[in-house]
Amino acid sequence: MRPDTRLSRMLHVLIHMQHHEGTATSDAIATMLGTNPVVVRRTMAGLRDQGYVRSEKGHGGGWVLARPLEEITLLDIHKALGAPQLFAIGLAGDNPNCVVEQAVNISLAEAMDEAEAILLARFGKVTLAELAEGAAKASSGKLTMEHF
């Protein structure tokens, strides 16, 4: 199963957008991510619907941030992407009447629910501005826009 990288990729894009003058086109973002512009437009539309980006039409159009990174958390973007499943571990269903399988599934489900709650709480505390600050420190304060 291929991991869902949309959260990581969109966080990457949004932080770069803050340091980019003007709009970022779907084509440019698609090139940066190695994907199709249609995929970018569909994904960015979800962020637009939640008020994190806006699209500008016409010549020179593209995507721009609609809110400062200080007002956007990892949890916000996770939810805007449809709250994708966080864990790839699945529960068995081969023998639903087996008490051992039931006990295993209950234990795993409880542990994953607890881990998900902790992870989502952490996502709610981290702003994109904090991520950008960490990236700026790691790059000696120079976040370039070579991607766009």
Q: Can you write the helix and strand succession as a string?
A: HHHEEHHH
Describe the main β-sheet briefly: 2 strands, antiparallel
Spans of at least 5 consecutive residues whose pLDDT stays below 50 are none
Give the CA-based shape: elongated
Radius of gyration: 19 Å
Mean pLDDT, all residues: 92
In short:
The protein has a two-stranded antiparallel sheet. The relative contact order is 0.17.
Description of the structure:
Strands 1-2 form a two-stranded antiparallel ribbon. The mean pLDDT is 92. It has helices spanning 6-18, 26-33, 37-49, 74-80, 99-125, 128-138, and strands at 53-56, 62-65. The longest helix has 27 residues, at 99-125. It starts with 5 loop residues before the first helix and ends in a 10-residue tail after the last helix. Helices cover 53% and strands 5% of the residues. It has 148 residues and is mainly alpha-helical. α2 packs across α3 and α4 packs across α5.
Ordered list of secondary-structure elements with their pairings:
Layout: H1 6-18, H2 26-33, H3 37-49, E1 53-56, E2 62-65, H4 74-80, H5 99-125, H6 128-138
Antiparallel strand pairs: 1-2
